[in-house]
Amino acid sequence: MKIGIITIHHVYNYGAILQAFASYNIIKKYHQDVVFIDYDNTTFKSQRNIFLPCNTISNILRNVRTLIHYKARKKKIERFETEYKKFKLSQNHWYNTADFAKEKFDVIITGSDQTFSLYLTGNPADMKAFFLEDVGSAKRLSFASSLGEKLHMLTTADKKWMRKCFQKFDAISVREELSADFINELIGVRPHVVVDPTLLLTREEWIKEATLFNYKKGEYIAFYTVLSDSWVSEYVLQISKITNLPVVALHPKTRYDLNTGFDYIGDAGPREFISFIKEAKYVITTSFHATVFSILMHKKFISLKLGIGNRIGSLLSTLSLNMRFVEGIENVEIALNRLTDDINYEKVDKILQRQREDSINFLITSLQKYDNKSEFA
Description:
alpha/beta
């Protein structure tokens, strides 16, 4: 049985490439013939460019900033490309849904990550391939896919098209309750809720993949954000002053961080990201996957809520870590207390282990239906 995984695997985003690595390795434990469908699109390709088109003031300013930090940026890209080249890829490079006719798969798995977020890139055409509308005779399986946080952008026509696609799936799992609720409303069948694949690998397995992060162990606050707002930077700055700990950040400096004095590391790849979390004393983040790795590495952390926050909220609720989710309406003292409070990771690990077993069982059971001669049987 030949299995193809279609996910977001060739972008310079820590969470995307680490979930792809985890998805592949989990499936590989049970079945040997599995590859990534090497799907690309215009937006993903443009996001890999070091410099942006100089057609707006914003892009020009970003290009100036990139030029200043060009050496570090180039090193970071090289590290991401090294990981991408390690993936076992499909024979053909795919660009749109028509390319599904290029190669034959017995099963195509979409996910993990926000593969069901139709407006993730701003252009639905970029994302339609992940919905497996027309894949011939291949069985369709969703594993830990997410609808993201742009459901409010969906039109009536979008929902009608998505309903048609979801009804063709042989098995669907998602990683948030909200995603499950949405699909259930569309097709009358509730998807199975599983954990993100990064959580299916153990702490020990991830540590083996880490590359040492070149910063003094345990004596810094790790700060990573994929969104920005003035109150976020202010929270981090105030906590840094109170704890007398420096802040180390891996994301590009935002306009809100200009006068904070944070230390920015611009050349870290995916493996350095793991150590960045592991070696920190505290972690403050708005990122789903930085939250995931904080939990895996048994860190004291808080996740700051920007936007709807259903992905992080669902994860923390599942693991009884709701108090680690902080909103901007709360004061810094409350955030600090939540950050420095001890976490009962023995309890968290027990919940997580049950979630792992349930998620892997869903995957095994779903694939077992299609291959009685495989290791699943």
